Amino acid sequence: IKEYNPNEIEKKWQDKWAQKDVFKSKNKADGKENYYVLEMFAYPSGKLHVGHLRNYAIGDAIARYKKMKGFNVLHPFGWDSFGLPAENAAIDHGAHPGKWTKANIDNMRRQLKLMGLSYDWDRELSTYTPEYYKWNQKFFIEMYKKGLVYKKKSFVNWCPDCNTVLANEQVEDGKCWRHSKTDVIQKELSQWYFKITDYAEELLQGHEELRGHWPEQVLTMQKNWIGKSTGSEVDFILDYKFENNGNSHLKLNDKGEVVISVFTTRPDTLYGVTYATVAPEHPLVEEVILKENPGIREKVEAMRNEDKIARTAEDKEKEGVFSGLYVINPVNGEKVQLWVANYVLMDYGTGAVMAVPAHDERDFQFAKKYNLDLKIVVNPVDKNGNLEEVSVEKLENALTVPGILVNSEEFNGLNSNEAKEKITEKLEKIGLGKKTVNYRLHDWLISRQRYWGTPIPVIYDEDGNIYLEEKENLPVKLPTDIEFNGKGNPLETSEEFKNVILPNGKKGRRETDTMDTFVDSSWYYLRYLDSHNVEKPFEKADADAWTPVNQYIGGIEHAVMHLLYARFFHKSLRDLGYVDTNEPFKKLLTQGMVLGPSFYSQNERRYLFPREAEFKDGKAFSIETGEELITKVEKMSKSKNNGVDPEEIVKEYGADSSRVFTLFAAPPEKELEWNMNGLAGAYRFINRLYLLVSGTAEFSDHNAKSENHYGVELKNRNQKDEEIQKKLHQTVKKVTESIEDDFHFNTAIAAVMELLNDMTTYKQEVIDKDNISTESKKIWREVLEKTILLIVPFAPHVADELWAYLGNKTFTFEEEWPKYDEELTKDHTFNLVIQVNGKVRDMVLAQIGISKDDAEKLALESEKAKKFINGKEIVKVIVVPNKLVNVVVKG
Ligand code: ANZ
Ligand code: ZN
After folding, report:
1. Binding residues
2. Aminoacyl-tRNA synthetase class Ia domain: from which residue to which, for each copy (predicted)?
3. Which residue has the higher pLDDT, 75 or 717?
């Protein structure tokens, strides 16, 4: 018996795997079904954290399991390696972002290899390489030609700390997604957009294909983000004589009048409009309102600078100013005031609203504040269907529920739903409105004022006209003569990059914005299929064969950014002819967070490291000051000093124990509470298995082959043999079913632990005794081999070590997943109840299916029963099959 030494074993097998290239995968394998398992690639921050460890342990368990199940498995890894931190490091330490990034990747790759993951490293990719981002540029150009990319000037989110614009998805509660304390401000800039809104409906409908395979929560978040809303567009004519100078952005009718279209979900309330409002950014404001009324400019600009998201919140103080102008209600010709208000956003609907203060809460608050009229046009109905009495004077809130129309001319008496239809029909007839659908989703703003990203392949001439870079000039590479001084976009400092000659020989200026890094991550799963191809991003046949990815694994935080962008990108690539499939990821597993205990000192106002705390009676105290600390279990993070370093863990306990612990402690989708005792428990489990296998291998039949259940003759088994074999087959069944059931590795491992207990008993009761039978030896061989194979997905190193110890020459990764025999999982004996005259007198072990005669014989042979039978006349014997025998006696 040897000592279990994980460091030695793991190093040895990692070297052998690398030497033999066992994880190399092919795009096609005859007779095998493809299975693509993908963990979200990593941002090379420098070091792995436990969240990575968990993510990759799950992915690797799936990959190894599916491989053993006979699939042609693809399991690659790569680096999401453009982005802000590299640039900040360059500003702070003067190192080029590329150098910083490469060093981080090298270190993290080294750490990953310590975990023994079955990645096909030949396919590794890194998005910061020109070989990768060249294809971003090619897609950009093709999308531009197809109308899926455009440039537009508008108010955009700007993070003063990032010094760049942000997509809406990157603004969280008005703050930057990377700078949680920084208010995002609004800047008017000309920026590049991807036309994701063209796919809004398809992105929504596509959920049907994903439902049941993606967490419902993610689908809901995407649905809300897309925010589909059905309603009507209604045209109000501005009561104003407009001088058209030819370059107006306003909508004009054929009479040259200005049309203010509003979007409403409640056309049934059209007769209740008492005023209308436009957003402060609406083109009417600059073109007409501020010309007529320059005095309100300050007020309007103050509204423009407010946070866009907060502006629409119910509880946000409503602000506004009367424009001095009026608009005309298309159904009754009424003239109502036109206001500019902060609660109307330019980038939703049409940027203008018909206000119905009696029936809309925000309009209600606004009208109360500015003393505007209210008009009730929908009467609520009570439970019995009777109209409720309501009066404007008594209203304390808007009446937002649907009801029966009043004060609405020919529409009086209709219910809200009918009225929506009928009023919209009328608008369509008079040409002043139509049915429409609106989405909250906006086009994806992809340009960033940054160096460390994909250069946008565009050149401008002196008049600002746009030229796409020629295909043969791709990739447009990032220049290296750059200054990182923390001021503005570093690309602006490269003259060589900026100044180019256009195809027509004239002087041109290269676009210095780069692409959002979410562009990189929108198609990387396709690049793995052919990551060294210099002619094409990937082959179409491969893309069709390997997408949608069978199993994608990553954090829920990507629900609306990455996961929505990738779905859009896949559909765009489909429409550009690159792939035929509709979705990138068939199944999605969002793994839960890793939590750890944290220790907060109120006196010092900081989180202490666990090593700074001592523990008494279940409480934590500062070692230095003795202060009792506030302990919580919360998400591991640097700011809370409650993280653990996976590399240290692996060095101390081994990769196998770390993997077993993370997979055992919780099902993959649930939160995982990190716990050193649990980790030590995983180590002890592997250690016990290791000692048991290495200590008893010689008592297993080395000649027994896996075919025909290792040649075991069932009838030659003794009771103990039968029980251990039954337990083995039950365990194989349980482990297989747990994995098939959404990868519940925790119950799978628990089952192996139970088996190990029974194995230990068997060792004591059978193997440690003399004269172990030939049948027992065969059975023990089966038990050892199958148990080792069962742990391959979780503890692959020790599995290979023990596999070899049994004399096998193969890698477990290449073995078949163990099979179980349903018959052998079943009980074969039962306790036969023996009664005399209906009273239980004995219980004996019998084979299931025992014949009536044999059961009767057992009963009559029972010493205990005989006492009540002997000397009496047996009248009859009743046998209930597989249950009991009742001997009826007389005298
Ligand atoms: C009149 C009305 C009467 C409205 C009523 C509601 C209730 P959802 O459901 O989110 O799509 N709205 C339209 N465009 C807007 C904009 N750019 N900024 C702020 N609010 C805007 O909401 C649609 C409703 O939000 C629209 O229907 C409009 O107010 C308002 F009893 O029109 B409603
Ligand atoms: Zn920021």
Report:
1. 638
2. 441-595, 634-674
3. 75
Which ligand 1 atom is nearest residue 349's CA?
Answer: 14
Give distance in angstroms: CA of 371 to centre of ligand 1: 20
771 pLDDT band (50/70/90 cuts)? confident
User: Minimum-distance ligand to the CA of 449?
Assistant: 2
Structure-block tokens of residue 377: 């046009």
State phi, psi for 227 to the nearest 5 degrees: 55, 60
Residues 696-712 have pLDDT tens digits of 999 999 998 888 789 89
**Residue 798, pLDDT above cutoff 80:** yes
Ligand 1 pocket by Cβ (under 6 Å): 229, 263-266, 269, 312, 343-345, 348-349, 351, 353-354, 356, 359-360, 438
Model confidence pLDDT, tens digit, residues 818-828: 999 999 998 87
Q: Which atom of ligand 1 is nearest to the CA of 355?
A: 1
**Res 583: pLDDT:** 98
Span of 107-111, 543-547, 633-637, 690-694 with lowest mean pLDDT = 633-637
Does pLDDT of 91 surpass 90? no
Kindly report, residue by residue over 522-545, the tens digit of the pLDDT: 999 999 999 999 999 999 999 999
Rounded Cα distance between 241 and 681, Å, is 82
**Which of the pair, 157 or 523, is modelled with greater confidence?**
523
Q: What is the pTM (predicted TM-score) of this model? A: 0.88
In CATH, what class is 6-127+521-551+559-590? Answer: alpha beta
Looking at residue 1, its pLDDT comes to 55
Q: Whose CA is nearest to atom 19 of ligand 1?
A: 344
Calculate how far, in angstroms, residue 639's C-alpha sits from the geometric centre of ligand 2: 18
Between the two ends of the chain, the Cα-to-Cα distance in Å is 66
User: Domain 829-890 maps to which CATH number in 3.30.1370.10, 3.10.20.590, 3.40.50.300, 2.30.30.60?
Assistant: 3.10.20.590
* Residue whose CA is at the smallest distance from ligand 1 atom 14: 349
How do strand 352-355 and strand 275-278 relate by DSSP bridges? antiparallel
Could you report the predicted ipTM of this complex, rounded to two decimals?
A: 0.96
Q: Is the pLDDT of residue 397 over 70?
A: yes
- Expressed in angstroms and rounded, the spacing between residue 178 Cα and the centre of ligand 2 is 5
Short-list 731, 595, 598, CA closest to 665: 595
Rounded to the nearest angstrom, the distance between the alpha carbon of 487 and the centre of ligand 2 is: 14
> How many whole angstroms from 379 Cα to the centroid of ligand 1?
19
Which residue puts its alpha carbon closest to atom 18 of ligand 1? 344
> What is the DSSP code string of 709-744?
HHH--GGG--HHHHHHHHHHHHHHHHHHHHHHTTT-
Contact 640, 598 (CB under 8 A): yes
> Hey, which residues does 275 pair with through a beta bridge?
337, 355
| Residue count of the chain | 891
Name the closest ligand to CA 84: 2
CATH among 1.10.760.10, 3.10.129.10, 1.10.730.10, 2.60.200.30 for 680-825 = 1.10.730.10
Query: How is domain 594-664 classified at the CATH fold level?
Result: Rubrerythrin, domain 2 (2.20.28)
In the block, tokens 């090379």 appear at 44
